[in-house]
Amino acid sequence: MSLIAALRPTTARAVANKSISCLASSKRLQSSYAAHNPYLKDFVYKDTVRVKDGSLTLSKDEHSMIDRFIRVNQAGETAAVSIYQGQMAILGNKGDIKLTELLEHMREQEVVHLDIMDKHIADFRVRPTILQPAAAVGGYILGATSALLGVKSAMTCTEAVETRIGMHYNDQLRDLYKLKYPQLDELKQSIAKCRDEELEHLDTAVEHGSQMAPLYKLQFELIKGGCGVAIWLCERI
Amino acid sequence: MTIRLLGRAVATRTVANQSIRPKIRHLQSSVPDSSGFSGRDNTKNNTNLEILDLALTKVHDLGWSSTAVSRAATELGYSSMAHGVAPDGAISLISHFMDRALDETCIEVDDQLHEFPDTSECLRFICTTRLKQTLPYVQRWPEAAAILAQPQNVPLAMRHLTNLSSQMWYLAGDKSTRIDWYARRSALAAVYLSTELFMCEDRSPNHQDTWRFLKQRFQDMDKAEYIGSKTVAFGEQFSRNLYNILASRGYVSH
């Protein structure tokens, strides 16, 4: 790859030559090396993806893995923000200041996560999922529904979502640590930070009585399963 | 008829040079790319690319077909059965052309991107560069477009178009992270496709009508984006005002 980059001419731009061969009009063949060097016939950009403003070149497979991860993370954080918004809309009027402040604090942390994931989407040339608006709406509905069932049920919903997300981030980190590029360190650190804060939310939810909710096991498993389905969908669509 | 002529040529050669075995070059084995993942398509095969590139120069006479690939293979010294490097014939050659054209566009455009302050201007320049890659084949391009429109080739054509659109926006500096990522790419794909088809029929000197058409389409695209953002802003303001009115009347809790 570096051989190709070194041999690529950097001088004058090509004249648009209307000859039969399109290769004659390209910069590539202006160099005298081109006629004799078989390597220059390779594609320069086809099988790789340049990310992070060109500072890192990934193969198609590596990029598709990172693409999937960041796409589903952005959708997940959007859903998390709207889950807390939904819960606040229902539980915010009960007059319990501490609960409102707690929900607001958790929502702000999720907003920070969402901004991190948006930045990664721009950096790594990730295709955002087309279900992102659907994730926002679905999250709001989930948060509002669980809050309607009571404070403890809202905490159960939080606990289930955060458990699933914690598992999910751990799986991602496990796969990301197989890639050794130093430019990926920031990505790994930010995912680790998000995972730590999600697990913190999980502990907070348990402290506030999530396991005392009525039909706790059913709610927990249902919401965790739903999250799994959503993750599967967002990775592909 | 071409195959019969080729056969006769081979026959006379073997009769004349019975002591010398005809030199048949063998296709090289593919060299696996060294990367962290063992992907399916991580193979560099210089020989295949050589044959396909030479076949592209024959498209003007022989059209987009496996005949062009066979002729190219024979000229380079390989067996004429080597048209198996393009197993589906025409569509492989067209696909190779599109990959090559996009690659050349990226190389060409690489050092000039910073000269454009405006994203739209930058995008139009990149689009123009890509269209100029098709210019040498413009007489035969309607044939290729027809082949790409066949039902069995539509998924491949769609993949190429979306890849092209995405790559062009990326080079122009697009940083969208929401649903407008899709809106922008589909708009650009439509603009590019319509301009390419226009270019096939264009007989004006220096293709100036094509460039004017492209400029007009870009203006339409910018206007559509402007109108879209204004509509969304209006909708937001309207719903905000409505909520405030209802809250002040006590119909919703604030």
From TrEMBL, chain A:
Catalytic activity: a 5-methoxy-2-methyl-3-(all-trans-polyprenyl)benzene-1,4-diol + AH2 + O2 = a 3-demethylubiquinol + A + H2O
Keywords, in A-Z order: Iron, Membrane, Metal-binding, Mitochondrion, Mitochondrion inner membrane, Monooxygenase, Oxidoreductase, Ubiquinone, Ubiquinone biosynthesis
Protein name according to UniProt: 5-demethoxyubiquinone hydroxylase, mitochondrial
Its EC number(s): 1.14.99.60
Similarity remark: Belongs to the COQ7 family.
Binding site for Fe cation 1: 77, 110, 113, 198
An individual GO BP term: ubiquinone biosynthetic process
Cofactor note: Binds 2 iron ions per subunit.
Function: Catalyzes the hydroxylation of 2-polyprenyl-3-methyl-6-methoxy-1,4-benzoquinol (DMQH2) during ubiquinone biosynthesis. Has also a structural role in the COQ enzyme complex, stabilizing other COQ polypeptides.
Database matches in InterPro entries: Ferritin-like_SF, Ubq_synth_Coq7
Binding site for Fe cation 2: 110, 162, 198, 201
Pathway: Cofactor biosynthesis; ubiquinone biosynthesis
HAMAP family (UniProt xref): COQ7
Subunit structure, as described in the record: Component of a multi-subunit COQ enzyme complex, composed of at least COQ3, COQ4, COQ5, COQ6, COQ7 and COQ9.
Primary location group: mitochondrion
Bilayer disposition of the protein: Peripheral membrane protein
EC top class, as a word: oxidoreductase
Cofactor needs: Fe cation
GO function term, MF aspect, one: metal ion binding
Gene Ontology CC terms, in alphabetical order: extrinsic component of mitochondrial inner membrane
PANTHER family assigned: 5-DEMETHOXYUBIQUINONE HYDROXYLASE, MITOCHONDRIAL, COENZYME Q10 BIOSYNTHESIS PROTEIN 7
Protein's cellular compartments: Mitochondrion inner membrane
From TrEMBL, chain B:
Positions of transmembrane segments: none
Gene3D superfamilies recorded: Tetracycline Repressor, domain 2 (1.10.357.10)
Keywords carried by this UniProt record: Lipid-binding, Mitochondrion, Transit peptide, Ubiquinone, Ubiquinone biosynthesis
Any one annotated GO CC term: mitochondrial inner membrane
GO molecular function, one term: lipid binding
Domain COQ9 C-terminal: from-to ranges: 154-224
Recorded coiled-coil stretches: none
Protein's pathway: Cofactor biosynthesis; ubiquinone biosynthesis
GO biological process per UniProt: ubiquinone biosynthetic process
Compartments where located: Mitochondrion
Assigned protein family: Belongs to the COQ9 family.
Role played: Membrane-associated protein that warps the membrane surface to access and bind aromatic isoprenes with high specificity, including ubiquinone (CoQ) isoprene intermediates and presents them directly to Coq7, therefore facilitating the Coq7-mediated hydroxylase step. Participates in the biosynthesis of coenzyme Q, also named ubiquinone, an essential lipid-soluble electron transporter for aerobic cellular respiration.
Name this protein carries in UniProt: Ubiquinone biosynthesis protein
Provenance organism: Coemansia aciculifera
Organismal lineage: Eukaryota, Fungi, Fungi incertae sedis, Zoopagomycota, Kickxellomycotina
